[in-house]
Amino acid sequence: KTRFYVTNLYGSRGALGRTMENYFFLPRANVVFFDGRRFRVVARGLLLANGILYDRAHDRLYVTEVTGRRIRVYRVNPFSGDLVEERRIPLPFGPDNLALDATGRLWVAGHPNLLATARMMRDITKPAPSAVAVIDAPASPNPHVTLVYRDPGKEIPAASVAVPFQGSLLIGAVYGDHLLACPLPPPPEEGGTAGR
After folding, report:
1. Quick check: 64 pLDDT over 90?
2. Which end of the chain has fewer CB atoms within 10 angstroms, the N or the C?
3. CB atoms within 10 A of CB 95
4. 92-95 contact pairs (CB < 8 A, 24+)
5. Is 18 exposed, middle or buried (0-12, 13-18, 19+ CB in 10 A)?
């Protein structure tokens, strides 16, 4: 039986409503669950819900909130698909997409300057900055956030995804024509930023 979660980036259907969600930080986005027969909303009131990742090992669902500059962590009921919010992990940028590595660390790429990203959407010649963070123990009560990459937009503008692969960190972008390969940083040390 096919079951999955998806995000609705916006709660508004029209262009004006979506613009208002962007600039006035209106929490209208949601998460929808498909149980094999029908769709139903299982989480509401998010700020531009975008990236979504299910951690099967811990029965947790991670959802990025771009304008909220955070990741919401939900406990998943494996039978009903219902979600219970456990915590919010604050970030120093607007998170886009997520990747989980073999050790259970959560990688997230995103946008330090959301206005610059919006400007680049209208004019590709005006690059927006990029950032990548890794979150150690994201399912625990005390996840640790470490910023591992930051770029003003010269190497890779408007990064949207970061994936560890064979000793490298591959970073992709919304409007990029290439991937950036960086040396994979070591596991984060104690003393990172804890979520709430």
Report:
1. yes
2. N
3. 28
4. 92/131, 92/133, 92/147, 93/69, 93/131, 93/133, 94/48, 94/66, 94/67, 94/68, 94/69, 95/50, 95/51, 95/64, 95/65, 95/66, 95/69, 95/70, 95/71
5. middle
For residue 134, give the amino acid letter: V
Instruction: Enter the tokens of residue 36.
Output: 């094999």
**Residue-range definition of the domain harbouring residue 178:** 4-194
What is each CA distance from 97 to 42, 51, 148, 172, in whole angstroms?
A: 20, 4, 15, 10
pLDDT tens digit string along 156-175?
999 999 999 999 999 999 88
Q: How many residues does the chain have?
A: 196
Give the side-chain half-sphere CA count within 13 A for 42: 23
pLDDT for the residue numbered 174: 87
- Please name every residue paired with 131 in a beta bridge, in sequence order, or none if there are none: 110, 150
Average pLDDT over residues 45-74: 98
In terms of Cβ atoms closer than 10 Å to its own Cβ (0-12, 13-18, 19+), residue 58 is: middle
Report yes or no: 132 and 149 within 8 Å, Cβ to Cβ.
Answer: yes
- State how many domains the chain has: 1
CATH of the domain at 77: 2.120.10.30
